[in-house]
Amino acid sequence: MKGLRIEIDDKSGFCFGVVRAISEAEKALAEGSTVYSLGDIVHNRIEVQRLERLGLRTVTHADMPALGGRRLFIRAHGEPPTTFARAKELGIGVIDATCPVVARLQNRVVKAHEQMHPVGGQVVILGKRGHAEVVGLTGQVQAPTIVIEGEEDLGLIDFTRPVYFLSQTTQSIALFEALGAEMRRRAAHPDGVRIDDTICRQVSNREQHLAEFARRFDVVVFVCGRKSSNGKVLSEVCRRANARTHTVEEAAEIDPAWFPGAESVGICGATSTPKWLMQEVADRIGQIGRR
Question: Which of 75, 90, 147, 197 is at 20 to 30 A from 172, Cα to Cα?
């Protein structure tokens, strides 16, 4: 394994929304006093720990009554309007770092409901149930929004009624398009399904790039937090392109048994994976390669 070539994908790592959120958090922490993040600021345990050392504390909605006069950080995933109203009621200062792409999608969800209400239609979102972004999206209006994760959930939709179909920003374009086509096939009327592609291209464009990247190496190591929805999607893209793909959360999880016979290793990650963490993984593999 000596002379192992290691390359970090220059397009992997934080997306614009996450970069912006972490920058806002670091700026607020530099001003002094604790900042309370409503949920993990990013779905990467190692990066959260780094920010905790700077004074960030992760809290839940249940903790909000004790935070009067404190600063509450709204992460890139966004929150429903009820959270902002509750913070105001409790006298909590809010730092809103909702990703602009997510904020636009929240507005589109509201408009979708406005369009569907008069015609008895349904608003459907492709997304992961319970994911912070999806909770924020479905919470934009009181009317119910149907969340589907795959074709097995299409039974939740009444295809005799109009459908407005959107997506969580980090979902797979291929899955969204396939489900949209199937909805149109099942719809009682040809124009009964409106498809509104709301997937973030900064994220989705990585799929083809990552597939090409993964094919260039003998082994691929994908770095992401275990909670990362985007990480699950992108690591599968790599795995389909290269069967010798391994997913880790940190450098300590690297297994030397992955590399026998390998001459090259590609390192890539999710939109919630910091560059410094991918570099740590590269350094660890480099140490193995020098043995």
Answer: 75
